[in-house]
Amino acid sequence: xxxxxxxxxxxxxxxxxxxxxxxxxxxxxxxxxxxxxxxxxxxxxxxxxxxxxxxxxxxxxxxxxxxxxxxxxxxxxxxxxxxxxxxxxxxxxxxxxxxxxxxxxxxxxxxxxxxxxxxxxxxxxxxxxxxxxxxxxxxxxxxxxxxxxxxxxxxxxxxxxxxxxxxxxxxxxxxxxxxxxxxxxxxxxxxxxxxxxxxxxxxxxxxxxxxxxxxxxxxxxxxxxxxxxxxxxxxxxxxxxxxxxxxxxxxxxxxxxxxxxxxxxxxxxxxxxxxxxxxxxxxxxxxxxxxxxxxxxxxxxxxxxxxxxxxxxxxxxx
Length: 318
Hints:
Elements: H1 8-22, H2 35-38, H3 41-51, H4 63-80, H5 91-105, E1 116-121, E2 131-136, H6 153-164, H7 167-170, E3 174-178, H8 184-191, E4 197-202, H9 205-217, E5 224-228, H10 236-244, E6 251-255, H11 264-277, E7 282-286, H12 292-304
Helix pairs in contact: 4-5
């Protein structure tokens, strides 16, 4: 619920902060509201109710993370209060801060390797925002084959595009996601974008098991299915029929799967096999451009295949 009696700019600032908090953005990178905004008692009450009230949310971040965010807010409030007789940190905020401090000291959940609930909000302002909750390890770096344990920025960018400008690609369509990891995009297509059927695929059995848990968590079992799929597998039609009962897909999605050029031949083979099953297939991909040479290698591999594919590049490079 939007904070009452606030300007539209204040509401947007607080809503952005709430979303980033539920998404478990690193506390050092959070867009904290300015002190003048959060100093009024009614704003502090809103923060307590909409960020730290466990009765309001089924899944909140672990206590250690909440403590770090509250500590940041506490510092901002202390600096903003010039006259303690006129302004103060409300009792409820102090009580919640003390409560979460005690839990944070005992919080074994907030380990880098452990999964915890991360909640993503659809990229529009709504009175009752629609969300997706994923169990992932948001601070686990991509090393040792662990890249499938979190949702990466490329998936969030593609999700924003699909929700704002690309809904027609998904609505009423059958969707297959390659290298899906924990399944964020696939779940979004099934929950909020009106897909007819979605298949989550990844080359890791352990990651697919995690994706299945997230599918169940968001209540889209049946509509969204999961399958192990290794790129380059010549039996792709058999795999798809066995796992989903269908081989015809209208749309293929891929987010941040262009990081290792050694994988490109197998990936492009799979893409061609999918085109053979449906010549009208569309593929949407989003990727962080870590090096221009990696992108160039992928585009060159597309053009040099037995039946060259045309790839169109758009968007920002980071």
